[in-house]
Structures are given as C-alpha cells and as structure tokens.
Amino acid sequence: MNANRAPCAFCKTKNKRCPKNCEFAPYFPAERRASYESANKIFGSNKIKRMMMLAGEADKHMLATSILKEGDAWTNDSMRGGYGEIQNLLQQIELRRAYLRELEEKINDEKEKTRLHL
C-alpha cells in the first residue's frame, strides 16, 4: 500500500494488504468503505471480484457505481432496496406532475381573467 493512500474498501474488507497498483482502488476507494461493506453483505467479495473481472475496462466504473448504489439502497431500505428507491422516485415524479398541472390550471385561469378584462 502507498504510504499516502489508505487501503481501498475491497482490500480493507478482505483484511489484505492493498498494493500500490491495486486493481480495485480506483473503483472502491477508502472513502466509500461503508457503501462497499453494504454491497459486500449483498453480493460477497468473491462475486464482486468476479463481476469486476468480467466487465470491460469501459464498464468497470459504471459497474462499481451500481454495486455501491445497490449496497446503499439496501442500507436505506432493507425491505425493498433499489426497488424502493425507484418507487419513491416515481412517486416524487407523480407529485411534481400533479403540482405542475395545478400551476398550469392557475396560469390558464389568470390568462382567461385577463382576456375577459381586455
């Protein structure tokens, strides 16, 4: 491990020395350890390692981000995980659409009032 760099979340969780050229350090940095530990509970380090090895270089960052987000999702909602986050976002979209419709109706009412006064 580099003296200036903390061990990556992957190596820290496996209790192994993190080499200077650790293949997982760019994807699972020390600052994301809590997210990695959550993901590790879901997938296990062997499966995470296998998924990362099978992914092409261009896809590894996206895969790592997805793995960490899935871990966070299950930490935040232990019953529904990522599905719960999607449901919450869909509900927020619907609430905002309803609010937008309400505002559009008010704008149209005001336009009609203005037109009648001219």
From TrEMBL:
Superkingdom of the source species? Eukaryota
What keywords were assigned to this record?
Coiled coil
Q: Which residues form a coiled coil?
A: 86-113
Signal peptide location in the record? none
Q: Name one Pfam family in it.
A: LOB
The residues covered by the LOB domain are 6-107
User: Keyword Coiled coil, does the record have it?
Assistant: yes
Give the protein family. Belongs to the LOB domain-containing protein family.
- PANTHER family per UniProt: LOB DOMAIN-CONTAINING PROTEIN 4-RELATED, LOB DOMAIN-CONTAINING PROTEIN 5-RELATED
Spell out the protein name for this chain: LOB domain-containing protein 9
The record lists the organism as Cardamine amara subsp. amara
